[in-house]
Design goal:
alpha+beta, 7 strands, 40% helix
Length: 215
């Protein structure tokens, strides 16, 4: 039987920037000053420390989500190492309060676009060439995926999520990205789904997790 739907939202970057609701723009304009927050891009030159900061937010921000299992340090480090080759720091942000991370948003260039240029039959060679092409052209693809966006529970409902959406969209537009996918979003994540709908995104894919009782 159905356990949970997971939604993928699609939006055109320039539409998000140009049609951001006035109320959300006002919130974004005041949130940093009101709560003493700072926002910066991910620093690839401080990778290990950045991974540790993001890991702390990840395990804290998602702990009450349906189906969430915290990652061990080794698991998180392994995933981060695998993603590092395609990270574009221009579209990855950390929000801090008094120097401590309280929220982050990680978007990745759509690596499938350059990889489509290589014949799948080439196997290992295609993988290496595709990886090299992706590294050199991470800002030359049309799409991006908002992979994770989270705010520590005690800092929610302060507009930090809106700030992350808005700055991600602006940075994506400035760096030539045309469209974005945000996924997977739990259907029960009312706040995030409402925010994505408000900025003009639309659900264009539904994934489903099924379950079966074992007796």
């Amino acid at each position: 039987t159905k356990a949970m739907n997971l939604w993928a939202w699609h939006a055109y970057v320039d539409d998000v920037v140009n049609n951001m609701p006035e109320k959300m723009v006002r919130i974004v304009g005041k949130v940093k000053e009101r709560y003493g927050l700072s926002m910066r891009n991910l620093d690839l030159n401080d990778w290990d420390n950045e991974v540790a900061r993001v890991r702390e937010i990840y395990n804290g921000a998602w702990e009450k989500n349906w189906g969430f299992i915290p990652m061990t340090d080794a698991e998180f480090d392994h995933l981060a190492s695998a993603l590092r080759a395609i990270v574009d720091p221009a579209i990855a942000f950390i929000v801090e309060k008094d120097g401590q991370p309280v929220g982050f948003a990680l978007s990745l260039p759509n690596a499938n676009e350059p990889l489509h240029k290589f014949h799948p039959g080439a196997s290992i060679l295609a993988s290496y060439l595709g990886g090299a092409y992706t590294l050199m052209n991470k800002r030359k693809v049309a799409g991006l995926r908002v992979l994770v966006l989270g705010v520590l529970e005690q800092y929610r409902k302060r507009g930090i999520d809106a700030l992350l959406y808005y700055e991600t969209a602006k940075a994506a537009s400035a760096n030539g990205y045309k469209w974005a996918e945000a996924s997977w979003i739990l259907e029960s994540n009312v706040m995030m789904n409402r925010a994505l709908s408000t900025i003009g995104a639309e659900i264009y894919k539904t994934y489903r997790v099924y379950e079966k009782s074992l007796k």
